[in-house]
Design brief:
There is one protein chain. The protein is an alpha/beta fold. The protein has a domain of about 200 residues: Rossmann fold. Strands 1, 2, 3, 4, 5, 6, 7 and 8 form an 8-stranded mixed beta sheet that branches. α2 runs parallel beside α5 and α3 packs parallel to α4. It starts with a helix and ends with a strand. About 40% of the residues are buried.
Length: about 280
């Protein structure tokens, strides 16, 4: 396993917190994944991989689109999240492709060569220690006419869901350590030229990287106080607040709530524009 730090990260508190907040996160991210799935043209009995499948919701959507006769394998390194995914598939659906899940590292797992027509990911491919090796491995799993499609974050600076709470928290807290450029993490693929280079080196062709904008709606039906409490557990300020002294816990929450007020409605939660990359390529 080459991604040891990520495996520890997603099997620790982060993975468990994501599971605890799965419904909120899925409600926010599901529309973006569906936009990427719209790119595919599925033939009868298609086979697909869902990389970084998390709790399995996009895997099921992929399986429903492919339909009976096909197969989808969801791949993730997080045991807590895959436990939820397995629960979702306890009940079989006759109109859905067969679904399996693997707790493996997609960078190094020996997928059967030329075994799938499609590789998909919703925010699951930015965490590889060696992304060229990882995508080379995924390329080998695709048939010669296979297709790849995934979404990833554009820069943190153009995503207020990340910046607004963080800037408010940083009024009282010290900044976190600066991450090296392109380090594994949510924003590793923020630069499209870097993504293009990775895919090209990995053997992909007809690479397209286009902007995708979509609202990020978080906490519909919750109060602003409840939303902030969820954000300090799973959102972009979770680690900052977790490491803060007890005396600053509530003041930080108050600052974040005040910063989010312009984006909040009583029944609609917070609504902030998100900017992503839609990436497609052929084997």
């Amino acid at each position: 396993m080459q991604n040891k730090s990520q495996i520890e990260f997603w099997n620790g508190d982060t993975g468990r917190n994501w599971v605890a907040h799965d419904a909120l996160m899925e409600a926010m991210l599901q529309p973006i994944g569906e936009a990427i799935l719209d790119v595919f043209r599925f033939e009868p009995n298609a086979r697909a991989l869902d990389i970084g499948c998390g709790c399995g919701h996009p895997t099921l959507s992929l399986a429903e689109r492919i339909g009976a006769g096909g197969s989808v394998t969801g791949v993730d390194i997080s045991a807590p999240m895959l436990a939820v995914a397995h629960e979702l598939t306890v009940t079989s659906a006759p109109d859905r492709a067969r679904v399996d899940f693997l707790e493996v590292d997609a960078q190094v797992h020996p997928f059967e060569l030329a075994s799938v027509e499609h590789v998909f990911s919703r925010f699951g491919v930015m965490f590889f220690e060696d992304p060229v090796a990882a995508f080379h491995n995924l390329h080998a799993a695709l048939i010669a006419s296979g297709t790849l499609a995934f979404c990833c974050w554009q820069s943190r600076t153009v995503n207020p869901f990340m910046t607004v709470p963080a800037q408010a928290a940083l009024e009282l807290l010290p900044p976190p350590p600066e991450m090296p450029p392109n380090a594994p993490g949510p924003f590793a693929f923020a630069e499209p030229d870097y993504v293009h280079s990775i895919l090209s080196q990995a053997g992909f062709s007809d690479i397209s990287i286009t902007p995708l904008r979509h609202a990020l709606v978080f906490g519909a039906g919750l109060s602003l106080t409840e939303i902030v409490e969820h954000l300090v557990n799973i959102g972009p300020i979770a680690q900052l607040v977790r490491d803060a002294p007890e005396a600053l816990q509530q003041p930080v929450r108050d600052r974040v709530a005040n910063a989010l007020k312009p984006f909040f409605t009583d029944r609609g939660g917070i609504n902030l524009e998100g900017q992503f990359w839609q990436v497609t390529a052929n084997a």
